[in-house]
């Protein structure tokens, strides 16, 4: 597991699931379909990514392909970091 | 047996208006006089279709002498709201009171808190600007994203995505408006020993389009079971003036004109009605899509959105949680 993935997973656990451990979130579990994210939740996730990983999330980035699962978010952050030369070691 | 799927259309929502008005009338008399033990009904009049319909139903049920209408404009209200409210009250022949709530809102720092929330994402924003809140539409990304539209004094508009923090701050500030209005309605209810009528229609009630302890609060809700198109039909049946029937639904909460669909529903009300009806009657998205001229994928998205909003609405409908039952209060299952 990369450190980005660990951080994202921790965020989902703390902020989207409020620490509920009975909900199983696999890497490709859809946040939308499992009902754990709403429109405010998306904005909170974006704020977290921008602050934690120093990436800029544009309006056109706000699509499920980028933000709807732990795997998608991890890939998205990796791609964004590489583009801005901010890649985390 | 009727084939619901092949016959699905807006006709599904047609009701016998005279019969329904009588049914609601009986419910209002029984509810207000016997259960609530109050002498009449207070209703806040916004000049919109829902409050107009509720006032007309209250007059139909109890007579004009037992209905009080309250106008509660504030700095951001459209002038039409007061004018149309007065037009209705005159037609119904009810007693009215006008309370400009701008002073209370200023005292609570509603406008300053709102402006600060907007400034967090639009630094150049100041008091000379107008603004409104919006939600990305059905045709854009799958996520519903909240944004603020600002208009500078020269009339130039910009649409800016909100941060989660700014969104919450903006909504928390503007919710003062609905809560202040409800406080005023209860003032008059206490003053005259009347009951407060709530004005949510079925779409609003089901989908949580109200402020908890604001417009969501009331003693009796006579149109919460009616789809919005049924509310229009009922209002027309009871003689609500044409100008009110033709006015597009607005939230009347922001200084820029804001329709309900751009804020909350993402579809015009008549289509939202059909989607909600279709979903509650387990109709396949394809069937509903044909009747409405939408694609199956769009209806599927609306179905998902209905579920998502119901999940959020659960909190809004919940009464305070109790450790155990006390007197008549039962813990919720």
Task: Provide a descriptive summary of the structure in words.
The complex is a heterodimer of chains A (89) and B (333). With 89 residues, chain A is mostly helical. In chain A, 54% of the residues lie in helices and 0% in strands. Chain A has a single domain (3-84), classed as Non-ribosomal Peptide Synthetase Peptidyl Carrier Protein, Chain A (Orthogonal Bundle), CATH 1.10.1200.10. In chain A, helix 1 crosses helix 4 (70-84). By secondary structure, chain B is an alpha/beta fold. Chain B has two domains: 14-123 and 173-250, Rossmann fold (3-Layer(aba) Sandwich); 267-318. Chain B has a four-stranded parallel beta sheet with strand order 3-2-1-7, sandwiched between helices. A three-stranded antiparallel beta sheet of chain B has the order 4-5-6. In chain B, strand 1, helix 2 (49-62) and strand 2 form a beta-alpha-beta unit. The longest helix of chain B is centred in the middle third of the chain and has 29 residues, at 164-192. The A-B interface holds A 32, 35, 38-40, 42-44, 46-47, 59, 62-64, 67-68 and B 135, 141-146, 161-165, 167-168, 304, 307-308, 311-312.
């Amino acid at each position: 597991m990369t450190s980005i993935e660990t951080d994202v997973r921790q965020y989902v656990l703390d902020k989207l699931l409020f620490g509920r451990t009975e909900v199983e979130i696999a890497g490709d579990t859809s946040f939308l379909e499992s009902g754990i994210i709403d429109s405010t939740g998306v904005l909170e996730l974006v704020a977290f990514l921008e602050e934690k990983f120093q990436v800029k999330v544009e309006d056109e980035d706000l699509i499920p392909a980028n933000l709807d699962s732990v795997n998608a978010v991890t890939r998205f952050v990796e791609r964004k970091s590489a583009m801005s030369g901010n890649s985390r070691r | 047996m009727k084939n619901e799927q092949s016959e699905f259309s807006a006709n599904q929502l047609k009701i016998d208006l005279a019969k329904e008005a009588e049914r609601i009338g009986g419910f209002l008399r029984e509810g207000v006089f016997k259960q609530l033990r109050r002498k009449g009904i207070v209703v806040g009049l916004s000049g919109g279709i829902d409050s107009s319909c509720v006032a007309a139903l209250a007059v139909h049920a109890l007579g004009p002498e037992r209905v009080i209408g309250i106008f509660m404009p504030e700095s951001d209200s459209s002038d039409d709201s007061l004018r149309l409210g007065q037009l209705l009250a005159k037609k119904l022949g009810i007693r009215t009171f006008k309370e400009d709530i701008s002073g209370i809102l200023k005292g609570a720092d509603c406008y300053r808190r709102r402006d600060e929330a907007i400034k967090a994402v639009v630094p150049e924003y100041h008091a000379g600007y107008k603004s409104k809140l919006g939600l990305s539409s059905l045709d854009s990304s799958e996520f519903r994203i909240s944004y603020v539209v600002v208009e500078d004094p020269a009339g130039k508009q910009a649409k800016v995505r909100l941060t989660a923090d700014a969104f919450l701050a903006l909504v928390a500030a503007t919710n003062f408006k609905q809560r202040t209005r409800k406080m005023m309605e209860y003032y008059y209810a206490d003053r005259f020993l009347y009951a407060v009528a709530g004005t949510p229609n079925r779409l609003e009630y089901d989908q949580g389009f109200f402020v908890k302890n604001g417009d969501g609060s009331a003693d009796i809700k006579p149109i919460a079971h009616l789809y919005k198109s049924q509310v229009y039909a009922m209002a027309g049946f009871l003689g609500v003036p044409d100008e009110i029937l033709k006015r597009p639904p607005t939230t009347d909460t922001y200084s820029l004109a804001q329709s309900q669909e751009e804020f909350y529903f993402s579809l015009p009300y008549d289509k939202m009605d059909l989607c909600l009806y279709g979903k509650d009657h387990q109709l396949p998205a394809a069937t509903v899509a044909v009747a409405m001229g939408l694609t199956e994928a769009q209806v599927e998205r609306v179905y998902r959105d209905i579920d998502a909003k119901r999940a959020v609405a659960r909190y809004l409908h919940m009464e305070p949680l109790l450790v155990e039952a006390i007197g008549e209060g039962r813990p919720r299952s």
